[in-house]
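Course exercise 7: structure representation. Students receive a sequence record and must write out the corresponding structure in token form. The form below is the worked example handed out in class, using 3-dehydroquinate synthase (371 residues). Read each field label carefully; the graders check that inputs and outputs are placed in the correct fields and that the protein name is recorded exactly as given.

STUDENT ID: A-19
EXERCISE PROTEIN: 3-dehydroquinate synthase
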Amino acid sequence: MVVIPVKLPSQSYEVVIAAGGRYQVGSYLEKLSNIASDVPLLIVSNPKIWQLYGQDIQLALKKAGFKSAHCVLPAGERYKTLKTLQKIYDAALAHRLERRSTLIALGGGVIGDMTGFAAATWLRGINVVQIPTSLLAMVDASIGGKTGVNHPQGKNLIGAFHQPRLVLIDPDVLKTLPRREFRAAIAEVIKYGVIWDPQLFSQLEALPRLDDHRYISPEQLLEILERSCQAKVDVVTKDEREAGLRAILNYGHTLGHALESIGNYRLFNHGEAVALGMIGAGAIATALGYWSEAEEAAQLQLIQKAKLPTSISAKLDHSDIMTLLSSDKKVQGGQIRFVLPKGIGQAEITDQVPQDIIAQALAKLCSVVAT
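STUDENT ANSWER:
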């Protein structure tokens, strides 16, 4: 078992990584203050995850003396909307959740983001516990308190910071994770190696395959989880509300979010879009002299090893992509902000990227050939 403390002014908590941890969720909650057992907990999930793991969570809670109800939402990024969020509020009202109540997010990043936002806004803020079931949610969305839903004009434009009381990661659930979702999460793991942890980057280079968890041993997977989560925690504890440093976690996301949106969240999933965004940002960094062509190539090789997409269709309208970039929530003073690598293990935020350099990066994305 690995325990990573997250020490924040607003609320400190722990990230617990434990094989079989879902069977002990009640015991973990018993140890937390202000988690009431005399009012219902509401578990939020999607149909597939609920079918696989819902009963495990319910029985573990019941064993510890907690009462629980559940709310099942449709799966998919396109349902991460205010309309879907209403279903959580309706369930909270139906089950009489109060200010001492707790929401439990059981699922991937979409469920975690929506449940966290519901917890932030129901009765002006109640407890939320994150039990991520996808690798992407484990290493990224469940940690740091960013919550929200999408607007038709952009991803995560509606949201709030609301830290969880606990993040409980059970690596065993990854055995049922589809290969495409596993590969998508590796994009975020590569991100941590590029912006923060060169040792993690080297570890990924040493692995023979990154496209399927079956080729990664439990020990290697645990180290990937621990190093990725620790990187996220390191950054978040230095900058909880993205006043500065935390923005480096958006590496690959500026362009990635635009690609998700232009494809209506169907063409690319989040990790695939981030991988493409990192390739684009890497090309910009090389053009501006931030890092070397060899470092850009090393990043591309890892993305290719994970069998993630490395190019976009030339048919995608670049002017539409630029419009979406300009409406990104990270834009300041009308300037598009990019996170750019300064070498393996460090990054910088800048809004001084000329339009022609962005256009060149998009053109390069249309010509990259996968190996």
